[in-house]
């Protein structure tokens, strides 16, 4: 299981500080949607300079303007970026085609999809390889529903799965044991920790542990 650090921040200086402290101890660094809106894609180069060996995920949440948005991503050369699973099939196909040309992976965010299992099957048929089950408490979602949804989607499609939504050091062991996601996305539990490096090391230890 990999740990993805979500920089869900508005302050670019704090974001860069977090990358310096915690970045070396996670597997993927995510540039959050709000940070991208506030700072623009220039922040990507700054983060890359601090942790040049870490894959970057840009949480673009693409839904329309597929050629324009995917071409913008090509300029940043991220390893991963997100698209909303509720986007049209035409938009999905266009973004996947551009991503393939640039050796990038599109991660489809299933948040607010009425029938996640059916949509996951449709996305797989269109060529998707990565999905994210995302429950956001700030939007009224129940994070506990993520467990059932994750299991159902994973069983139905067998794609690479990420899980996001309020993951902390207390919940990660059960998530690892019961769900076994390829990627666990962690935000506030590291961002708001007094010792962000220590928190990242603790997440890393759980993720890499071979104990059941």
Draw up the topology in text.
Blueprint: E1 2-7, H1 12-22, E2 28-31, H2 33-39, H3 42-50, E3 56-62, H4 66-76, E4 80-84, H5 89-101, E5 105-109, H6 116-126, E6 130-134, H7 145-157, E7 160-164, H8 172-178, E8 183-186, H9 188-191, H10 196-208
Parallel strand pairs: 1-2, 1-8, 2-3, 3-4, 4-5, 5-6, 6-7, 7-8
Helix pairs in contact: 1-3, 4-5, 6-7
Descriptive report:
Helix content is 47%, strand content 19%. The two termini are 13 Å apart. The chain contains 10 helices and 8 strands. With 212 residues, it is an alpha/beta fold. The protein has helices spanning 12-22, 33-39, 42-50, 66-76, 89-101, 116-126, 145-157, 172-178, 188-191, 196-208, and strands at 2-7, 28-31, 56-62, 80-84, 105-109, 130-134, 160-164, 183-186. It is globular and about 45 Å long. Strands 1-2-3-4-5-6-7-8 form an 8-stranded parallel beta barrel, surrounded by 7 helices.
Oligomer: single chain
The rough form would be described as globular
Biggest sheet descriptor = 8 strands, parallel, barrel
| Backbone structural class | alpha/beta
Strand residue content: 15-25%
Show unreliable segments: none
- Helical element count? 10
The percentage helix is: 40-55%
Mean pLDDT: 93
Give helix and strand order, one letter per element, not per position.
Answer: EHEHHEHEHEHEHEHEHH
Rg of Cα set: 16 Å
Distance from N terminus to C terminus (CA atoms, Å) equals 13 Å
Task: Give the beta-strand count.
Answer: 8
